[in-house]
C-alpha cells in the first residue's frame, strides 16, 4: 500500500515510466521470490530513494533503473499476496458512476428505464438485480460484466 503513496507524489510521466519498467522487468523474473515484511519495508524505502534519481530519460541499462525494476516487481508481488484488492461491490460501483455522472436516483431510474423506488431497493440491497437490469447497467453505466455478475 505504501508504494502507491510514494508513487502518487511523482508526475504521471514518471509513474508511466515505473509501470513500463515493472512490465519489462517482470517478464524475466516470472519465478516468484518470496520476501519478508522487513524486506518489503526496506525495498519501499529503496524505491523512494531510487525514484529521486531515476526518470524517463534514465537509460534502461542504468544499474539504478534495473534495480528499481527488480525490486518494484518484488514489492508488487508481495503486495498482491498480502494486500489483495478484491472486485468492488456492484452497489459501490453504481454509486461511483452516479457521482461521476452527476446522477440522482431519479435520473438513474430514467436512464435505466425503471422506477426510483426500484433503484433505491437495488442500492440498499433489498432487491436482487434482474438479468435485464444487469444488461442495462452494463450498457448505460459502462460497468464491467465481471462486477455485475459477482
Describe the structure.
There is one protein chain. The protein is an all-alpha fold. It has 9 helices and no strands. It has helices at residues 2-8, 12-26, 37-51, 63-82, 90-101, 105-112, 116-124, 131-141, 145-148.
How do the helices and strands line up, and which of them pair or pack?
Elements: H1 2-8, H2 12-26, H3 37-51, H4 63-82, H5 90-101, H6 105-112, H7 116-124, H8 131-141, H9 145-148
Provide the succession of SSEs.
HHHHHHHHH
Low-confidence stretches: 1-12
Distance between the termini: 25 Å
Name the overall outline: elongated
- In DSSP terms, counting alpha (H) and pi (I) runs of 4 or more, how many helices? 9
**How large a portion of the residues is in β-strands, by DSSP E?**
under 5%
What is the mean pLDDT?
83
Given helix and strand content, the structural type is: mainly alpha
Total strands: the figure is 0
Query: Mind describing the biggest β-sheet?
Result: none
Helix coverage percent: 55-70%
Q: How many structural domains does the protein architecture include?
A: 2
> What is the gyration radius calculated from CA atoms?
21 Å
Name its key features:
single chain; 150 residues; mainly alpha; 434 Repressor (Amino-terminal Domain); disordered N terminus
Structure in a nutshell:
The chain has 150 residues and is mainly alpha-helical. Helices cover 67% and strands 0% of the residues.
